[in-house]
Amino acid sequence: MKSRILLTISLFISVFSFAQEKKTQKPKFNQELATSLGADQYGMKAYTIVMLTTGSAKIEDKAQMGILMKGHMTNIGKLADEGKIIVAGPFLEKNKENYRGMFIFNTKSKEEAEQWVKTDPAVQAGVFSYEIFPWYGSAALPLYLKHHDEVTQENP
């Protein structure tokens, strides 16, 4: 009986130890993936962040604002489908900088990012203005997009 208990404990410890070892093992470097994503030696790359701010236009007509926001969302989807925008979303709290939302564009060119942000109907109408910043982040960031639809039940 005592040997069975020791055997069980021993098996448990070895399985637990193996499981812990598996979790801490670093994944094998994938050169093909790194190259396809434009990763540098650190697995990073340059992007451009656009911070949307409150624009100068004051649109009181709710129907008109609804049309602009629908166009805003449609444009984000179009840019994402084209691989130009990889992150977009609103801020959940007011802030002193008056940032309303942000885009992370898959380009290191501020000029290209500005061209893309200007395709937004809400930006065109002056609902949003913007600030542009270079940013350095994980080259794997765009990979989450292929899974986004798997976790989405409704579109806004």
From TrEMBL:
Gene3D superfamilies: Dimeric alpha+beta barrel (3.30.70.1060)
Tagged with keyword Signal: yes
InterPro entries per UniProt: Dimeric_a/b-barrel, YCII
Source organism, top-level taxon: Bacteria
Start and end residues of each YCII-related domain: 68-135
Signal peptide: 1-19
SUPFAM superfamilies, per the entry: Dimeric alpha+beta barrel (SSF54909)
Keyword Transmembrane found: no
Keywords: Signal
Family the entry assigns: Belongs to the YciI family.
Protein name (database record): Uncharacterized conserved protein YciI, contains a putative active-site phosphohistidine
Organism per entry: Chryseobacterium ureilyticum
